């Protein structure tokens, strides 16, 4: 089977589903209104309903552009964050806020390059087994106290402490930090972690295996410092307004659950004089269509996403506001391999084969996404990208192979495959679930129940293993293949499907100390093609709407990290 499909073939029932979705989307489009962002005005400020000072500046100090009277940025943020604790955050929702409130050793530049942040410089020795970060001496917590190397020691130890329970504890182990694995397993105390403060402003990291990209990994919030003074004073309540102490450009001001979270400029921040946005308002809007409506009416300066249903029209009507850029991210479905019928690899293989990815990217997402047959995207830096054999088949060939696999697993017309597909509340996820479940019904006779949960509940149910098959999205935390492949190691806190493979784990472990990790990564991907713990659907793009008045949005950053401090709002 060597031919490749050139045109997505759509069955009659799938066409019917697509037609019904289009009718619904047209109605939603009609309700979105026009002109809000074109007129701009003060709608966003009025909708935010917060007290904000007059801008310190009338014009931008570098560009000379006239600035808005009040610098209040209103951002759509998709859902209510599950946590604002950098060591407990596990998703982009909380991450979008935490990167404004806190700052690590490094940060992501506008093009995705790693730049100095709290660390002004760094160096490695002992064949990359020891890394030394030299901290800025003007770093301050929002309570005015100095940020020191001791705060990073405390934060990194906290991230691996089993009593804290970070789902990202494995991230520190993936970085090769000495003793991280034993600490996570409860075999050693957090104080044994390979980090220490040589003095107040020199932070040293000792690794078990040499890692050349450690500075890139420190962009992630799991490696942020932690304010011992606030945590010890308030315990689990330290992230509440009035209690939180942070070291980023902003500090938490108010948090009204289900309505908005407001951050104010941190006057103690080291670059406060260069920060133009005074207030940031994060609005949790789970419905992408509702978010678009509020954007179109001028109540938001930027959205967190764009409804896939409306991409075609937005490309025509708002081309200058629509951001579409490659992102190191994969959209997939994860199988709970400990629960029937997904404990049978033949079922997982059949369902993966039967997804027509060309239909998805051509008729549903329409955001320049790329069909995915692997976990790791092809544009990850330095990755030797290869495709499984089934990626070269035509879709009819994949469908026939899927039917054969399902018959081998014992499923027939008289004994159809039945299961539930879980996704978090969002029109785009719903549209994909409807179309893909229809593909499985039409091609395999499967009876699929699709169910949705709000974001926090969705996360908790996945972590508890209370699902059979669920939507999964993964955005690389740094630009190296291991950020994707370690997701499915046995000790990964984000491996909700429970898949485990000893050879796979060892490959990822060996890759950390190899001068050329690609052979290990290639073999790891091959194991995924054989075991199918996840069903990749497409490689994602960053898709958002950004007001013409909002400047500085990082349109070319594949990490899709948006720092509010880098932006500003121009006058009408």
TrEMBL record:
Keyword flag Cell inner membrane: no
Xref: Gene3D superfamilies: Dipeptide-binding Protein, Domain 1, Dipeptide-binding Protein, Domain 3, Periplasmic binding protein-like II
InterPro entries: Peptide/Ni-bd (IPR030678), SBP_5 (IPR039424), SBP_5_dom (IPR000914)
Domain of life of the organism encoding this protein: Bacteria
Coiled coil: none
Localization (cell): Cell envelope
Keywords: Peptide transport, Protein transport, Signal, Transport
CDD domains: PBP2_OppA (cd08504)
Database matches in SUPFAM superfamilies: Periplasmic binding protein-like II (SSF53850)
Domain Solute-binding protein family residue range list: 115-495
Family: Belongs to the bacterial solute-binding protein 5 family.
Protein name, per record: Peptide ABC transporter substrate-binding protein
């Amino acid at each position: 089977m060597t031919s490749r499909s050139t045109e997505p073939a759509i069955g009659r029932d799938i066409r019917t589903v697509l037609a019904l979705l289009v009718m619904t989307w047209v109605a939603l489009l009609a309700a979105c209104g026009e002109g809000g962002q074109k007129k701009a005005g003060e709608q966003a400020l009025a909708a935010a309903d917060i007290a904000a000072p007059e801008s310190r500046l009338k014009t931008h100090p570098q560009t000379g552009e006239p600035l808005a009277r009040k610098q209040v940025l209103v951002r759509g943020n998709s859902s209510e964050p599950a946590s604002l604790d950098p060591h407990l955050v596990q998703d982009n929702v909380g991450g979008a806020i935490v990167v404004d409130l806190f700052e690590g050793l490094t940060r992501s530049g506008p093009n995705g390059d790693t730049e100095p942040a709290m660390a002004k410089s760094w160096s490695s020795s002992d064949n990359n087994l020891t890394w030394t970060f030299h901290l800025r001496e003007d770093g301050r917590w929002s309570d005015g106290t100095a940020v020191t190397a001791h705060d990073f020691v405390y934060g990194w130890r906290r991230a691996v402490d089993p009593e804290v329970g970070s789902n990202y504890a494995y991230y520190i182990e993936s970085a090769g930090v000495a003793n991280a694995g034993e600490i996570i397993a409860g075999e050693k105390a957090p104080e044994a972690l390979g980090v220490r403060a040589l003095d107040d402003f020199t932070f040293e990291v000792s690794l078990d295996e040499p890692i050349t990209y450690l500075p890139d990994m420190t962009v992630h919030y799991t490696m942020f410092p932690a304010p011992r003074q606030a945590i010890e004073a308030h315990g689990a309540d330290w992230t509440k307004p009035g209690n939180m102490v942070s070291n980023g450009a902003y500090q938490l001001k108010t948090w009204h659950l289900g309505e908005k979270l407001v951050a104010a400029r941190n006057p103690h921040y080291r670059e406060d004089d260069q920060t133009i946005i005074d207030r940031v308002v994060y609005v949790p809007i789970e419905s992408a269509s509702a978010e678009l409506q509020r954007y179109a009416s001028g109540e938001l300066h930027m959205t967190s996403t764009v409804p896939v249903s409306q991409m075609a029209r937005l490309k025509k009507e708002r081309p200058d506001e629509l951001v579409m850029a490659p992102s190191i991210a994969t959209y997939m479905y994860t199988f709970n391999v400990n629960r029937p019928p997904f404990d049978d690899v033949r079922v997982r293989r059949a369902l993966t084969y039967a997804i027509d990815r060309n239909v998805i990217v051509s008729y549903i997402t329409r955001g320049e996404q790329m069909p995915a047959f692997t976990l790791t995207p092809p544009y990850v830096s330095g990755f030797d990208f290869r495709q499984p054999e089934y990626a070269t088949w035509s879709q009819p060939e994949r469908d026939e192979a899927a039917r054969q696999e399902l018959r081998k697993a014992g499923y027939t017309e008289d004994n159809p495959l039945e299961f539930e597909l879980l996704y978090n509340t969002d029109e785009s996820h719903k549209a994909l679930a409807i179309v893909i479940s229809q593909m499985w019904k039409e091609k395999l006779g499967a009876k699929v129940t699709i169910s949705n949960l709000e974001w926090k509940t969705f996360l908790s149910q996945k972590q508890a293993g209370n699902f059979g098959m669920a939507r999964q999205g993964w955005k690389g935390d740094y630009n190296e293949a291991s950020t994707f492949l370690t997701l499915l190691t046995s000790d990964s806190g984000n491996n909700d499907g429970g898949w485990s493979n000893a050879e796979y784990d060892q490959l990822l472990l060996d890759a950390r100390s190899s001068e050329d990790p690609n052979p290990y990564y290639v073999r790891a991907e091959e194991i995924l093609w054989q075991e199918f713990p996840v069903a990749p659907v497409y490689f994602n793009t960053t898709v958002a709407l950004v007001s013409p008045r909002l400047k500085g949005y990082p349109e070319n950053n594949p990490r899709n990290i948006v720092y509010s401090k880098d932006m500003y709002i121009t006058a009408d």
